[in-house]
Amino acid sequence: MANSETKNLNKNTNKENAKDTPKGAPKNTPKKKPDGANMSNLWTRARDYLTSVYNELKKVHWPDRKALIAYTAVVLVSVALVSGLLWFLDAIMGFLLDLLFKAVA
Fold first, then answer.
1. pLDDT per residue as tens digits for the range 18-60
2. Which long-range contacts (CB under 8 A, 24 or more apart) does 8-14 make?
3. What are phi and psi of 75, to 5 degrees?
4. In angstroms, rounded to a whole number, what is the distance separating the alpha carbons of residues 94 and 105?
5. What is the helix (H) or strand (E) element at residue 76, kind and residue range?
6. In terms of Cα–Cα distance, which of 51, 27, 29, 47 is closest to 39?
7. pTM of the model
8. H/E element holding 9?
9. Helix, strand, or coil here: 5?
10. What angle do CA 16, 20, 26 make, to 5 degrees?
11. What is the SS3 assignment for 74?
């Protein structure tokens, strides 16, 4: 019972506050920042960001030369196989469309 009473009180106070403010007025006014503080804040945020990037890069597991060559080979072979498959499917589709156009024309 107490919850419904507090809900009703909140609704009433919201309606009363809405009547006090004019229709076109913004609900909250934005705060202006001082000009000098904005630029120093920008440099501080940029420095903090670059520091965190550097710290994250220290945590990365970088592969050794042998693993890097193996990974590169896997990627190049995969790209060659997929491009060959796409070329083969394109050639088949081109041949079938050529047959279709010759049959219709």
1. 556 666 666 676 666 555 567 778 899 999 999 999 999 999 9
2. none
3. -65, -45
4. 16
5. helix 65-104
6. 47
7. 0.46
8. helix 2-20
9. helix
10. 115
11. helix
- The 10 Å Cβ neighbour count of residue 100 is 10
Annotate 13-60 with three-state secondary structure: HHHHHHHHCCCCCCCCCCCCCCHHHHHHHHHHHHHHHHHHHHHHHHHC
> Is residue 33 a contact partner of residue 42, using CB atoms and an 8 Å limit?
no
In b/e form, how buried is each residue of 65-78, taking b as 16+ CB within 10 angstroms? Answer: eeeeeeeeeeeeee
In the block, tokens 């006014």 appear at 29
Joined together, the tokens standing for residue 57 give 């890069």
Q: Where do the domains of the chain lie?
A: 62-105
